Amino acid sequence: MGMNKRAKFDSLISLSRARLIQVLTGLLFLYLLFISFEIPVVLRAGLGLETPEIAFALPLISHPIFRTQNDNQFSTEEKEELVFRAQERKMGEFRKISGLIFDDNAFNRVSEDEFSELHKVVRDAFASGKEVLEDLKSGKVLSEVENQAKRPEEPCPNSVELSGDDFVKKGKMMVIPCGLSLGSHITIVGRPRWAHMEKEKNKGGGSTMMSQFLMELQGLRTVDGEDPPRILHFNPRLKGDWSGRPVIEQNTCYRMQWGTGQRCEGWKSRADEETVDGQVKCEKWIRDDDSGSEESKATWWLKRLIGRTRKVTVDWPYPFAENKLFVLTLIAGLEGYHINVDGRHISSFPYRPGFTLEDATGLFLNGDVDIHSIFAASLPTSHPSTAPQRHLEFSPEWKAPSLPTGPVGLFIGILSAGNHFAERMAVRKSWMQYKTVKPANVVIRFFVAMHARMKVNVELMKEADYFGDIVIVPYMDNYDLVVLKTIAICEYGVRTVAAKHIMKCDDDTFVRIDAVMAEVNKIQNGRSFYIGNINYYHKPLRHGKWAVTYE
């Protein structure tokens, strides 16, 4: 009886094992079938059987909102064929206007649920850009700009003065119509306020005594639609500096990018440090930890009584004090700005590249200070050219070479704004002259959208026609839509240039093309790759120019 039960149990186990083997065999068959379909795709992507140009072009064609200008000429079946022959058909053609356009018909088919705020911004930007572009082509904008140029220019007074009350009414800004020139000087009479308690942002919400103010020379006419550059930033910190001592900080700031600061902390500049018009960058003043100050005064009087002929120096206190009147004089020298307080030289700040004296058209003061009066004298009496496009040099040597008739190794698309004339000219005269660019192994183009000011757009079109290295993306420029320029770069690199590799950068970037090409040459032919640094700890900014909203 027991043997029969065991035999039945063994037979059940055998049947279960056989069924399990059958199930596993079926799953293995399905897996092999799936792999057989997957292998060709992997081979095309990994071994270069499908070119990067085609891989980039397919998403552009199938996108419901964005399309290229020639897509509506072909049926759905013809579009795949178009990708393969677009390279040969478009090669060598110069296109000043990007082929990326906004498809209104596809946009109207989007349901209300999918209709996001970003879609609205994109539609409005393309509509505005299209209107501006049509006005530029018709010549309507050019006539308006020429009529504005015929208007009388603002006078250039030799001196400007403001009382403290008028200065506050004008938003704490004194306009210097024609900027500064060599020898110009500005005198400020003011009084620092008493220190007040202020919460510290980076130390757990504690409080500290604070008394500081700033004086800035700003370029009010050098940029449009953004904060003016701080040509000179002078920041006396009576109390509240992280060091716990009174200091003076000086710097420059251009497009929200601060330069290397010059910090005066009470020590005189070293003898081997470069000077500015023979003046040291920082003078010495009596510090709180200067234990020998009383002894030095006694020694100074003793040497004077003895009649020593050697020159004796005097140590002065920090030039600013709470609730004490001061007279500050800013002088534009040959090599930089010099600042005197109460008749004594305090600091000198050398001129930074990219700025001229003519650019300094505004004086701004803010902080813990009461201004009594401001005087600016020895100003230029002739109207300078403060237009950004004055940086352009219309010389044949800076023109871009013609597009090649065959594929290129690297296409570099540079993101730029309409009024960034100086940045584009700097690129043309620097790394764009690299030896591999001239034989057309590397093609470089600036991608620029329409600007809010018509005068900038007129000059931009002239620049594009002459240099031949600008591609206009037909939408009204908006920092939130900068990704559209990236899409336009990919579209241009695939359809017009047929580049093997595509690179994107900004117009304030210096690209070492030799180093980039060295990395590119390490990649096996046909394989895709990405070069860049990933910031894993980055958090989205919620304030400022690069702010990202929660929506």
Automatic annotation (TrEMBL):
Its main location: Golgi. GO terms for biological process: carbohydrate derivative biosynthetic process. Keywords: Glycosyltransferase, Golgi apparatus, Manganese, Membrane, Signal-anchor, Transferase, Transmembrane, Transmembrane helix. It comes from Sesamum radiatum. It is a single-pass type II membrane protein. It holds the Pfam family Gal-bind_lectin. InterPro entries: ConA-like_dom_sf, Galectin_CRD, Glyco_trans_31. Pathway: Protein modification; protein glycosylation. PANTHER family: BETA-1,3-N-ACETYLGLUCOSAMINYLTRANSFERASE, HYDROXYPROLINE O-GALACTOSYLTRANSFERASE GALT4. This is Hydroxyproline O-galactosyltransferase GALT6. CDD domains: GLECT (cd00070). GO terms for molecular function: carbohydrate binding; hydroxyproline O-galactosyltransferase activity. It is found in: Golgi apparatus membrane. Residues 172-377 form the Galectin domain. Coiled coil: none annotated. One of its GO terms (cellular component) is Golgi membrane. Belongs to the glycosyltransferase 31 family. Its cofactor is Mn(2+).
